Amino acid sequence: MATMADVARAAAVSVATVSHVLNGTRPVRPGTRRAVLDAVERLGYAPNGLARSLVTSRTRSIGLAVPTTGNPYFTEILQGVETVALEHGYSLLVADPHDDPRREVGAARLLHERRVDGVIAVPSADPGGLVAHLRRHAVPAVFLDRLVAAGDDAPRIDQVCAESAGPTALLVGHLAGLGHRRIGLVAGRAGLSTTRERVDGYLRGLAEAGLPYDAGLLAHGDSEAAGGERATAALLALAEPPTALVTANDAMTLGALRALRDRGLSVPADIALCCFDDFPWADLLTPRLTAVAQPGRDLGATAVRLLLERLAAPDRPARTVRLPCSFVHRTSCGCPEPPSVKGRTP
Questions:
Q1: pTM, full prediction
Q2: How far apart are the first and last CA of the chain?
Q3: Nearest-5° Cα angle at 297, 295 to 301
Q4: What are residue 184's DSSP bridge partners?
Q5: Three-class SS of 37-102
Q6: Which among 48, 52, 122 has a CA at the least distance from the CA of 81?
Q7: Please, how many CA atoms are within 13 Å of residue 277, restricted to the half-sphere of its CB?
Q8: Per-residue pLDDT reduced to its tens digit, 24-82
C-alpha cells in the first residue's frame, strides 16, 4: 500500500508538502499541487481519514442542509456544492430538514455530531434555533439561497443568494408591457427573505408600470405545488380575476398550471404566465414557460468557496454575496416564439 512518503518521492516534493496539499493546511503552488494529486491518483494512495482528523481536528467534510432534495432548483445547488467540495478534497454529508425549524436544528446537530468542518444551510422561515445552535457550538457556516438578518450576538455567518426583487419586477414589467393591467402574484412562504424580496419586486414592477396595487391579486402559495394550486384557485375565483400571473418558484408554477388546467384555461390564450425559477422541462411544455432562471450551481459553488475562506480565516467579517439571474424569454407570456437568447436581469 502506498504511503505519503511514496507520494512525496513520486511528485519530487517533501512529505510536508504532500501533507499541506491533502490537508489544506498551507497554500501550495498550483503546479506543485497538481503534481501531488497526480501522484496520489497514480499510486492509489488513500489517506487515513480518521488518523488525519485526530491530528488536524478536521474531517475534510462539509454538511449540507437542504429543505428538499426533490426540488430541481435545490438539486442544481447540491451539484454545485458537491463539485467544488470534491475539487478541494472535501466529502459531503446531506440532510433534509423539510423547511421545518425544529428539524433544521436536528439536522445541524446531526451534521455537527458527524464532525463536519462546516455547514452550508438553506434556512427556514424561523431560523432562530439554527442560528443559536451554530453560535453555541462555534460551527463555521454559510447560509444559502435565503438571507437571515444578523443580530449583534450572531455568529459570523456568510450568505449567498440570487437577486430576487429586480428579476420579479422585470417579469411584472414585461407583462404590463404586453397590455396586462391585472397581474397576480403567487408568492412563497411568509417569513422567507426570498418571499419578501419577490413581493417587493412585484410592487416595484407595478409602480414602474403605473399600475395600482390590489391586495386581492397577491396570494401566498407556501412555496409548494399544493399551495401554488390553492393560491391560483383563489385568484381565479375573484370577481375580476387576473389576466396574467407571476409565480414565485418552480414548485408553485406546477401547482398553478394544475389549477389552470382543471378550470379549462389555456396559457397564454386565457391567461398569461411568467415564473420565477426555470427548470429542466420548462422548455418542453406547451406553451414554453417564460421564466427567471437562478444560477443554482453557481450558488452552491460560491457557498463552498465562502465556507473554505471562513475555515481559513475564522475571524474575518461576514460577507453576503448576490448573484444575477437570467431572463428566459419563451411563449407563456403571450409573446411569439423569440430567439433562443438569455439576457441578464438587473
A1: 0.80
A2: 55
A3: 115
A4: 245
A5: HHHHHHHCCCCCHHHHHHHHCCCCEEEEECCCCCCHHHHHHHHHHHHHHHHCCCEEEEECCCCCHH
A6: 122
A7: 27
A8: 667 888 899 889 888 888 887 766 554 444 344 567 899 999 986 667 888 899 999 99
